[in-house]
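To the wet lab folks,

You asked to see what we're planning to order before we commit. Fair enough. Below is the target structure as tokens, and below that is the sequence we designed to fit it. If anything looks off to you, flag it before the synthesis order goes out.
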């Protein structure tokens, strides 16, 4: 046989199957371009020049790249399986006409070479063009000025060639194995093999409902952000399992229920749509569930990362309430005064333009709560993270100094700020009951509240303050802790008038003066200083959260691409399967208008169901995601609601556009004569 015939056959096959090859190659190009761009960002020297936290950014990008690589491998194998399914009859015909399996293998090898070279060249070219845009986007999200210059990542090119070369070889071996294991007659009839009507699997549907309900229950009822970390994965697995089971079994149960409703079923459009979906629902279910899971993934990633990014200001204000913010812990009253004097002297010596300053002395105790009762016990005995309470104590003299309000408390009387408790006449701490003389409307302390645990502030008399201090010391007896009277916390805050640069210039010597007290002996060795200048910390937090948003956009784009391609492949595949069925129905009297109406109804019923299910998943996951965001310091629930709603709206519009394009392709196929 003339050798040139194989190359001609390979080229002709690609031209004849361009409706499936072009989307497949576009998918390959998109995946290759994404991997190149991520390798470019990790390899680019510009990142070191522009970003101080370049190593952190690279680590986040590398983590995202691993997820992208796994998804690309799985999705390209899936795309190829659709391509091979469309070509079964063609390959079977070659075999019948005299081509041996080895000859067909050579043709497929040449096809793979052509498509692989085209995809790699197109993907790397698109990656090189897009890499500069990706870098500019990343720098924009990091709030760093754009850097001019052009760089091609040789490492990125070799990574793409190596990785996707292996993927394309793997796909070729899978295709060759399928050809060698199949008989020509099976290949010829592959596309004509019908699905038997699936049985209504009530048990599977029930299990699906239980899994979905359990996942929703965990998402809604988990109160502790710490516990939400461990439960989140379990909830995701349950929801995914429930989604697949409900689409596989529950959809059949619903369709059979609709078929039993004669008044609904025996209408032209409903009859065609329901009967068509029912007989192929086993095949439909996996694709629809995959679309739903991918859509949910896109919505979760984009809404979370956008919320964290745009909530940066709230996060920073919570962590650093003042331009210069310092907390000195495990110190005595005398050391508090030493630090305050050094703080005030540094402000005066450096002529700092003070807008506002604060000096707060209090006692922090990590407690457990049982209802409204506060229990002082060692933290290593608190097993349930939901019950953790951070209790801050102020003596009445400090409260009066901070607020200018007279307390006039007697022993056993308190002022209380405890938002999560029911406002009663008393608060019980261990076995002692304290009379609440006043419930405070707001926290008298200006330091950032613990976003993860519950918070409470009590104003007590000097005598009660000492008793609490002794109880705390006894609680930590035997472990490393400051003795009673030497375990106070001092919070120093300073707002500075001026620009961002001036705030850093004036704030740095003040902060360094307080930090140097420990070196000079002004503070004991047990003292612990946590300090920061808000404007300096912004850069670090933008590096982390801007990188997360960038990865979220990348992964969201990839998952959206996967969703679009699954929908397209599904529509094209079902269009060819339904083509003869609609031709028969047109011959027996079905009008073109009725065909279009039936197609529209079927597509609407099938492809908007995953979107509605994804929206339900997002709604039920909202409480748990909100608690997870607390770990990042994101406490602005309204912003998260707005970002989630905006993400869902934009995704629904894009999903609708995908629907319009695929519906048109499906209609052209089924109406083709």
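Sequence we intend to order:
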């Amino acid at each position: 046989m003339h050798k040139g015939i194989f190359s001609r056959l390979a080229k002709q096959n690609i031209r004849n199957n361009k409706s499936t090859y072009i989307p497949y190659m576009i998918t390959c190009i998109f995946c290759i371009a994404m991997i190149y761009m991520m390798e470019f960002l990790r390899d680019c020297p510009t990142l070191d020049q522009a970003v101080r936290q370049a190593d952190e950014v690279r680590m986040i990008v590398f983590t995202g790249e691993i997820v992208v690589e796994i998804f690309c491998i799985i999705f390209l194998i899936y795309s190829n399986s659709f391509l091979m399914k469309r070509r079964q009859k063609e390959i079977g015909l070659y075999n019948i006409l005299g081509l041996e399996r080895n000859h067909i293998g050579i043709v497929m090898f040449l096809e793979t070479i052509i498509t692989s070279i085209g995809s790699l060249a197109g993907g790397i070219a698109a990656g090189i063009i897009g890499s500069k845009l990706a870098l500019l986007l990343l720098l924009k999200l990091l709030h760093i000025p754009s850097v001019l210059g052009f760089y091609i990542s040789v490492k990125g090119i070799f990574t793409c060639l190596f990785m996707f070369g292996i993927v394309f070889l793997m796909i070729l071996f899978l295709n060759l194995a399928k050809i060698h294991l199949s008989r020509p007659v099976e290949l010829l009839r592959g596309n004509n093999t019908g699905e038997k009507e699936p049985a209504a699997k009530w048990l599977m549907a029930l299990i699906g409902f239980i899994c979905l309900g359990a996942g929703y229950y965990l998402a809604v009822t988990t109160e502790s952000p710490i516990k939400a970390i461990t439960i989140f994965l379990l909830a995701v697995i349950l929801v995914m399992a429930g989604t697949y089971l409900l689409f596989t079994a529950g959809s059949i149960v619903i369709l059979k229920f609709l078929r039993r409703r004669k008044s609904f079923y025996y209408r032209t459009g409903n009859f065609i749509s329901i009967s068509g979906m029912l007989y192929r629902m086993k095949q439909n279910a996996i694709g629809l569930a995959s679309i739903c899971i991918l859509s949910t993934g896109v919505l979760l990633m984009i809404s979370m990362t956008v919320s964290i990014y745009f909530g940066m200001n709230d996060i920073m204000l919570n962590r650093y309430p003042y331009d210069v913010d310092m907390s000195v812990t495990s110190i005595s009253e005398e050391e508090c005064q030493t630090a305050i004097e050094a703080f005030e002297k540094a402000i005066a010596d450096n002529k700092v333009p003070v807008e506002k300053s604060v000096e707060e002395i209090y006692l922090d105790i990590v407690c457990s709560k049982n209802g409204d009762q506060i229990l002082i016990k060692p933290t290593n005995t608190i097993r349930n993270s939901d019950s953790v309470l951070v209790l801050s104590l102020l003596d009445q003299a400090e409260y009066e100094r901070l607020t200018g309000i007279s307390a006039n408390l007697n022993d056993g009387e308190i002022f209380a700020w405890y938002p999560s408790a029911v406002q009663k006449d008393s608060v019980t701490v261990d076995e002692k009951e304290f009379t609440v003389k006043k419930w405070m409307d707001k926290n008298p302390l200006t330091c950032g509240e613990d976003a993860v645990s519950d918070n409470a502030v009590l104003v007590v008399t000097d005598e009660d303050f000492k008793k609490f201090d002794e109880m705390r010391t006894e609680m930590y007896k035997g472990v490393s802790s400051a003795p009673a009277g030497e375990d106070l916390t001092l919070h120093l805050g300073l707002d500075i008038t001026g620009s961002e640069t001036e705030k850093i210039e004036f704030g740095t010597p003040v902060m360094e003066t307080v930090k140097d007290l420990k070196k000079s002996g002004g503070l004991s060795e047990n003292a612990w200083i946590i300090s920061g200048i808000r404007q300096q910390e912004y850069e670090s937090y933008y590096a982390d959260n801007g990188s997360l948003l960038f990865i979220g956009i990348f992964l969201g784009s990839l998952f959206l691409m996967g969703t679009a391609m699954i929908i397209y492949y599904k529509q094209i595949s079902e269009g060819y399967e339904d083509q003869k069925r609609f031709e028969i129905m047109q011959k027996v009297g079905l009008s073109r208008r009725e065909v279009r109406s039936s197609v529209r109804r079927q597509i609407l019923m099938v492809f908007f169901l995953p979107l509605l299910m994804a929206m339900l998943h997002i709604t039920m996951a909202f409480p748990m995601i909100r608690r997870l965001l607390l770990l990042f310091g994101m406490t602005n629930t309204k912003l998260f609601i707005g970002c989630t709603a905006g993400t869902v709206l934009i995704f629904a519009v894009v999903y609708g556009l995908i629907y319009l394009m695929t519906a048109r392709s499906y209609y052209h196929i089924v109406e083709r004569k």
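Structural context that might help your review: The longest strand covers residues 354-370. Strands lie at 324-331, 354-370, 373-375, 388-395, 413-417, 426-429, 432-439, 454-460, 488-496, 528-533.

Thanks,
Computational group
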